[in-house]
Amino acid sequence: MRIDSLLVKDPHDNRSTPPHILPIYATSSFSFESIEQAIHMFSNIESGHTYSRYANPTVDSVAQKIAQLESYGLDMEATAVMTSSGMSAISTLLMGLLKSGDKVLTQGNLYGGTTELLKGLFSQFGIETVFTSLADPSVVETLLKNDPAIKLVYLETPANPTLACVDIEAISTAAHRHNVWVAIDNTFCTPLLQQPFAFGADFIVHSTTKYLNGHGNSIAGVVLGRDRDLMRSRVWRAMKLAGTNCSPFEAWLTGNGMKTLALRMRQHSENALELAQWLEKHPSVARVNYPGLSSHPDHELAKKQMRQFGGMMSFELKGGFDAGLACMKKIQFCSFAPTLGDVDTLILHPASSSHLHVARDVREANGITDGLIRVSVGIEDVRDIIADLEQAMG
Ligand SMILES: *Cc1c(COP(=O)(O)O)cnc(C)c1O
Asked: How many independent structural domains does the chain possess?
């Protein structure tokens, strides 16, 4: 071999023993051992890795672990496909399941990006969305009975900003009576706190960017389904053709973060409950929204479908917009960032930031009142979080 050719060749793999930790397979393709193997793989006789948009060993390993978590202890085996973000998990699922003329039934208080995706993008392809409250399953039942174009009920529980919950089991029962699929965004809970497959959901999506990774250093998502064939023929196919595949590096970071998920979720939940109880007694606070509080309207439902109540909460300052702004100006310890689910506490005053340019009536219809503060409670010593809010609200 000439020196210029030597440069082009990949170096010899010097691995003598298997790696202890999952490696990052930074390769776009995989080489065939023989022409027979290539023929078998292209004829689907033999399965294996060919091209990383189709499948990659690092991504597959992490996806498989999330599938094991979502079906843990259940009489089923979930299939998972990782994607490039939470948004691409949602769009891949919708592209795989729906066609022009189909409709989605969902709630008004979804993650903002999801509402925009449905209203602004899928509508361009003839897929319409019906927004309603999913609080009453009989309303859902009536809507499904009267509109056979609805093919999917899409839900989020608990949902921002008031942490209102939806009864997954009741909605799934109603949907299945009409042969309609149920998909749920389980980002806030992770499989440790809530397993939607146990209550009848057909599909689950996560923004793994949030709690599953937990360390705020990757963007990725995952779609899970209970039906392996449907996952292969619809979801995996949509991922492969739309090219919404997850990068092996992002999957690797997610897999790394997930190792401490149990410890983190326990601490997030403990801290959030303690903070919520402290805020409930504070004279400047009008209302605290946390499903773990017995004062929360959906506390009983949350107890039925969640194991712990998680790290997301919000509260309403009596002093309205000015009080919200004043509080944010004084915050020192908590971080001011537009994400959630990281190990550190993140605080947001939507009326003066993410929703500044949204008309007040539109914002209030979605529960985003002037004095509302949203907190993604971290895993720090809770006394530091409380002390920061105490000085900021004082
Ligand atoms: C962040 C988030 C998304 C979108 O996820 P990305 O990873 O940012 O694309 C979807 N749903 C919920 C509930 C989220 O919090």
From this structure: 2
